[in-house]
Design a protein that fits this description.
The complex is a heterodimer of chains A (110) and B (114).
Chain A lengths: L4 E3 L2 E5 L4 E6 L7 E7 L6 E6 L5 E4 L2 E6 L4 E6 L8 E9 L2 E4 L3 E6 L1
Parallel strand pairs in A: 2-11
Antiparallel strand pairs in A: 1-3, 3-8, 4-5, 4-9, 6-7, 7-8, 9-10, 9-11
Chain B lengths: L4 E3 L2 E4 L5 E6 L6 E7 L6 E7 L2 E5 L6 E5 L5 E5 L8 E8 L9 E2 L3 E5 L1
Parallel strand pairs in B: 2-11
Antiparallel strand pairs in B: 1-3, 3-8, 4-5, 4-9, 5-6, 7-8, 9-10, 9-11
Classes of the chains: A mainly beta (110), B mainly beta (114).
């Protein structure tokens, strides 16, 4: 992996479904992994910053895990709600800068 | 606490002109970073400033420059505008570093180059 890659690119789920996204990043020169939520017409909002292999973070129904050895992070949303509809960005920090993925756009249908 | 403020929100320029964008960070934050987002692209890192010094720089041509003032406010300048510079420009602040701290983003400046 040379760049930060996110999958899937977009996701449509029904209200109440649980879902997860993947962020893959270069494991060399790694410093931290960030997750942001970006709602339409708003600014990106920080969800989590993780640095250690095996880190797990949780905020309400949203949680994230980090595997620095294999270079991936998962973001989980339990019981999706329409207000969870947004683009979820991950960014890998290292070498003095943060590299963002293209994001996963989640649409939750009522 | 006031959030990150970017001005102007929208800007229309023509090719060859130059433009200056402004970013006021959250009070007490000393690191300011700038990002460009073009349609279909993720956020591309432009540069980061800390205590009036450019700490890191992304892979952008020299037409893109910036500076930071003693009150941590930052400006970004783009000279000799090209059509491809049309984008949303976001700035973000953090207390010390962009690497392992959460970034607080402004609402962005939407630049259109005609």
């Amino acid at each position: 992996i040379l760049n930060v890659e996110q999958s899937p690119q977009s996701l449509h789920v029904q209200e109440g479904d649980s879902t997860n996204f993947t962020c893959s990043f270069p494991s060399s020169n790694f410093y931290a992994l960030h997750w942001y939520r970006w709602e339409t017409a708003k600014s990106p909002e920080a969800l989590f910053v993780m640095t250690l292999n095996g880190d797990e973070k949780k905020k309400g129904r949203i949680s994230a895990t980090l595997n620095t050895k294999e270079g991936y992070s998962y973001l989980y949303i339990k019981g999706s709600q329409p207000e969870d509809s947004a683009t979820y960005l991950c960014a890998s920090s290292g070498g003095g800068k943060s590299t963002f993925g293209d994001g996963t756009t989640l649409t939750v249908k009522p | 606490k006031a959030g990150v403020t970017q001005t102007p929100r929208y800007l229309i320029k023509t090719r060859g002109q130059q433009v200056t964008l402004s970013c006021s960070p959250i009070s007490g934050h000393r690191s300011v970073s700038w990002y460009q987002q073009t349609p279909g692209q993720g956020l591309q890192f432009l540069f980061e400033y800390f205590s009036e010094t450019q700490r890191n720089k992304g892979n952008f041509p020299g037409r893109f420059s910036g500076r930071q003032f003693s009150n941590s406010r930052s400006e970004m300048n783009v000279s000799t505008l090209e059509l491809g510079d049309s984008a949303l420009y976001l700035c973000a602040s953090s207390p010390w570093t962009t690497l392992d701290e959460k970034l607080f983003f402004g609402s962005g400046t939407q630049l259109s180059v005609l």
